[in-house]
Prior knowledge:
The protein is of the alpha/beta class. It is built from 17 helices and 16 strands. The protein is 38% helix and 18% strand.
Amino acid sequence: MFERVAINWLRDWKNREDRKPLVVRGARQVGKTSLIQNFGKEFDHFLSFNLENPDDLSLFSSEMPVKELFSLMLSVRHVKNSGSILVFIDEIQNSKFAIKVLRYFYEELPQVHVIAAGSLLETMLNKQVSFPVGRVEYMALRPCTFVEFLGAIGEKNLAEMVVAMAVPEVLHDRMMSLFNKYTLIGGMPEVVAHYAKHGDVVALDRIYQTLLAGYMDDIEKYKQGESTRNVLRFIMQKGWQSAASRIVFERFGNSNYKSREIGEAMRTLQKAMLVELVYPTTETTIPFAEDLRKRPKLMWLDTGLVNYAAGVQSELFGKSDIADAWRGGIAEHIVGQELIGQSNSFLEHRSFWVREEKNSQAEVDFLYKTRYGTIPIEVKAGHNAHLKSLQLFMQKTSCKSAVRFWCKPSATDTIELPDGKRFTLHNLPYYYSGQLGANWEKVQ
């Protein structure tokens, strides 16, 4: 299995003096278990427990002091208490005591590294399950980024160029071809690994089907009533066609479901990190407060799954510019996926700007927050004159620069607005979208 960038975050966590037990959060099949197993190789001892296994679950069947529990863990894995030790508790949602005991690892055994994860964990983070406040920390894991895709297919030199945003123009067409391939197949780790080994896109159908079937099976395990599960099934069957589009809950997908029913189901899928409801702001000054009364944009966890489930893979074949596919929705979706894919914070979310007035609607695709400020982003091809929404936003904001992601090499323009105000437009190729936050100071 190829290495995930998130392992660098885990290495930093390992060496911190103020380290707390870590809860890794993410949708099913984004590679949580594989990542942690790979990380476990960097310890003298790796103790892994899967609480779907009855024998492992029995260790947590009755409450006991944490030091006694730890001794029992060492004993059943035939490990001595020496050197560096990583304890991994997978499917931790199956034991309330296992969740509770994380606190005592922090307080009484701080030298032991502890990581927990669970495939249905996100949907249970409410009254059913309560993690010890202030005694654990969290890391989000999302699908593979373009840089990880390049590493998986053996293009590490190209990956380094992308990270540094230093791709020579002579390699631009090759990089765009690879990015288009990544856009087509997406970033689910099993998909990326299979493609890296076999290079066969058609053979990926079986994996997509298995992933989607797994998500549907999980719905049966959610603590919901049957009517809500029916709505969830409907969204999982029909909702992919609305990716990167603004949606209305009432009668979503030409159904007869009410706004309350769709909204409740969407929020359940959002907890599972399968979707994100991206709400707009109408403001042009910091802070850009989101307006929850307006229609959100629906973003799914992975563009490759969207392509397969929505039946639009054929639209991407042979496209020199992904903005030409599916009315630009796929280009916007993959850029949005890249923008959030670099973050290991589960609090990270995306936003966009709208101006909704009678006979006039304007929309800027993303407002991307960095430590240097907020960056307005458009995902569009074409002439600068076509960026009317962005120009409307820039007339009213204090932002001095904006970004347009497109299929061409990097270029910079100075745009003069009708009122005489000027701003800098950084035109960047799609494959840089995941590196914007780390390199914004360099871009400017």
